[in-house]
Amino acid sequence: MKLILLGAPGAGKGTVAKLLTAIDGSVQISTGDILRAAVKDGTDLGKEAQGYMTRGELVPDALIMGIMGERLLEDDCKPGFLLDGFPRTIPQAEELKVLLAKLGIELDGAVNLNVPRDVILDRLTTRRTCEDCGEIYNVKSNPPKVEGVCDKCGGNVVQRADETEEAISKRLDVFKEQTAPLVGFYTGENMLIDINATSSDVVVADIKSALGI
Ligand code: ADP
Ligand code: ZN
Question: Is 128 tagged catalytic?
C-alpha cells in the first residue's frame, strides 16, 4: 500500500505505520526518525535540523524535500510505503504531488488519525522512544520490560528532547497552523480517509476496511 499518515504529534502515526508494514511489507518512512538519526550521527543534515527540532519547530521544507526526493527513489519503496510525518505543510504536499507524478506513483490515500487534544497531551508526556531503533514505549500503558532498555534492540529508551512540556505545546501549535490544513488539501484531492484513532486497537482494522483489503 502507498499511504500518507496524517495526524497530530502523538496521534499514533508511528505505531500505526509499524502495524501496517506487517500486513504487506510496505516500508515505513518517518522523516522524524531520519532526522533524529542524522542528529545522533552528527551529519550536516543533523546539525542543520537539530535546533528546529529541539524547539519544536518544523525543519525547512527544502531540507525535507531533499531527503524525501532521494528516499522515494530507493528500491524498498517499490512495493509500497507509509509516509509518517511527511508531508507536514501545504508546500510539502504540493511538491510531493509533483514528485509522485514524475515518478508515476499513485497513492492509495491520506489517512487522517483523529485524536482529541487531551489524549494527545497525555500520550506525549508519557511517551518514551528507543534512541537506537525508534521503538515507541509508554511509561503507563506499554513500558519496556527492563526500565530504560529497549526490548527489541537493547538500546536506551529515553524521553525525546522535544518532549518537554514547552516543546510539546509548541509542536501542537505548529501542527494546528501548518499541518492541520493538509486535511483540507487531501479532501480536495479526493484522497482523505478519516479515522477515529482514540482507541488504537481498531485503527488498523478501520484503515483496512476503508482501503478494501
Ligand atoms: P511527532 O509527529 O511526534 O511530532 P516526528 O518524529 O514526526 O514527531 O517529528 C519530530 C520533529 O522532526 C518535528 O517536530 C520537526 O522538527 C521535524 N520534522 C519531522 N518531519 C518533518 C517534516 N515533514 N517537515 C518539517 N519538519 C519535520
Ligand atoms: Zn531499540
Answer: no
